[in-house]
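Quarterly update from the structural biology core.
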Amino acid sequence: MGMRLLKKYIPWILLLAYWPALFVLTHLPRLPPTGVHGGDKVAHFTAYLVLTILFWLARYGKYRPSLRSRRIYYALILMLCYGAVDEISQQLVQNRSADRMDWLADSAGVAVGLLILIVLRKWRHGLVVYWVGMFVLTHIPTKTQPLDF
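Predicted structure, tokenized:
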């Protein structure tokens, strides 16, 4: 498989693995405590930020994001609608409920994800640096959670 072909399919592979995993995780009857600073709102924010970036790279990767392009608004509307459907459908799972604040955290992640794509459109490697940074920042143990080695 040529490098060009590999670059074309990696975002799709990541998106097709991440999106269903995210759906399953948001529909588990009871999630274990995250131990993340900011609680589940930070997890919602980060999950939708990553989902939005992966969606853009898979669907529109060869296009530069711009506020003048319809593509960015399609991505925004799709991600916001998916976040709403995701929250509403959680009511069907035992011990889960729809939470407006979770949807707002999802929406903020979508908006920031698109903003990052606009700002870093010339520096794709900056996205990788950002993802690693977000992972490190969101996985710092809290004072009440001891480090497990």
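The longest helix spans residues 3-26.
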